[in-house]
Amino acid sequence: MGLNDTPGGERVHIGFFGRRNAGKSSVVNAFTNQELAVVSNTPGTTTDPVYKAMELLPLGPVMIIDTPGYDDEGELGELRVKKTSQVLNKTDIAVLVTDCTKEQGECEAQLIKLFEKKNIPYIIVKNKCDLLEEIPQQSDKGFYVSAKEKKNIHQLRERTASLVQVQEQTRMLVGDIVRQGDIAVLVIPIDKAAPKGRLILPQQQVIRDLLECGAAALTCRETELEDYLSKLSPKPDIVITDSQAFAKVNAVTPEDIPLTSFSILMARYKGYLDMAVRGAKAIDGLENGARILISEGCTHHRQCEDIGSVKLPRLLKKYTGKDFEINLTSGREFPDDLKEYGLVIHCGGCMLGSREMNYRMKCAEDSGVPVTNYGIAIAYMNGILKRSVKPLGIDI
Q1: In sequence order, what are the residues at sequence separation of 6 or more whose Cβ sits closer than 8 angstroms to the Cβ of residue 38?
Q2: Which of 227, 245, 273 has the alpha carbon at shortest distance from 389?
Q3: pLDDT digits (tens, 9 = 90+) for 204-228
Q4: Residue environment code for 44-76, b if the CB has 16+ CB neighbours within 10 A, otherwise e
Q5: Is the pLDDT reported for residue 35 higher than 70?
Q6: Beta bridge pairs of residue 218
Q7: How far apart are CA 332 and CA 14, in angstroms?
Q8: Rounded to two decimals, what is the model's pTM?
Q9: What DSSP string runs through 285-331?
Q10: Which whole-number Å values give the CA distances from 155 to 160, 178, 219, in the listed order?
C-alpha cells in the first residue's frame, strides 16, 4: 500500500484555521509544496474545507485540511464557520494562521479556546513576516513564516510534526488475540455489495495484521465455510466473518472455534467496543415509532440489499416486531445533537480516524442516546453477541 493508498482514517489530520485573508491557503500551499488551495486577496476565497494527502516526517502519511475563514459573515458565512467547526472533530494537530502585521482578536481567541476544549495540540503561525523590518524570535506563542517567500516553511513542518508525540503503533485488530503459527479463517461474502475486484478496508487490515504477527489468513465465502472447516486439520484458531453473514457463519462454526466479526474488531480498534456492546442492549427497550439513526463514515452507491438502508431496518423490525423511523447519514454528515433519536447504529468507521469516531460516540453519549455499530447490533439480534466478543476478552 503506497502513500496515496493509506486510508484517511489512518492518517494524522492537520487542520489550518484562521480568519479570512490571513493567508491560510498560501501557507497550506507552501507547506504542501503544491497549489492545493485557491489564493486570492479577496476575503473568503476558501468556501469549503479542502483535503490533501501528503507525507510529513516523522509522522508519515498525513491529511492536510484548509478551512474557510472563521470570521466569515452572513448566512453563507455561518455555514462556512459551521463546516470549520466540524473539521475540528477530526483534527489531530491545529495550525492557527494569523497575519503578523495585525493584532490577534476575538476570532483567534475563539479558535484557541476550541483547540484547548477538544485537547488538540496547536501552533500559532504568524504569516507575512516578509513585511516586517525585523522578525521576532520564534516561540510557542508565535512561529513566524512567509508563505510568499517560503521562509521558515521547512521549520514549520518540523515544528508541526513535533506537536504529536511519535509513539510505536500499539493498536491491533487481531495481533494480540492470535499467536505466531495460528490459522484464521476469514469469511468474506462476494455479493452485489462487495466492491468489484478488491476487498474492503477492514478485511485488508485484518489480513495485514495477521501477517505481521506470523499467523495464516485463509479466506472463503460463507457458502463454502462448512465444507472448508470440515477439511481443515487442525481446526482453525479463530473465524472472523463479515457481519452480514453472521447468522449463517455462527450456525456452521463449531462452538469450540472462537468466532467474531470484522466490525467488532474495528469497534475495539477505534476504541468504542464497550460503549457499542452496551448500546446494542438498548434495542430491546426501543418504543414503537422510535427514531433510529443509521450512519456510515463513507459514501457509496447503495445497492438493492444495502446493509444500512435495507438489511438492518429489516432485521430490527423482525427482531422487535415494531416499526421505526429510520434516518440515514453518510460521509462527513453527522448531527451534533442526537437527542431526537432512540438509538444510533454506526458502521465500523474504517474510513474515519479514531478522533472523529470517538467524537461521534461522544455526541451520542452527551445526548443520552445509546450507540452501537452494524456488526454488534447484528450479533446481538441474532443471539450471538456473547460468543462474538468472547475472543476479545469480554464476558457479557
Answers
A1: 25, 45, 46
A2: 273
A3: 999 999 999 999 999 999 999 999 9
A4: bbbeebbbbebebeebebbbbbbbbbbbbeeee
A5: no
A6: 185
A7: 17
A8: 0.69
A9: GPPTT-EEEEE-SS--PPPTT-IIIIIHHHHHHHHH----EEEEE-T
A10: 9, 43, 47
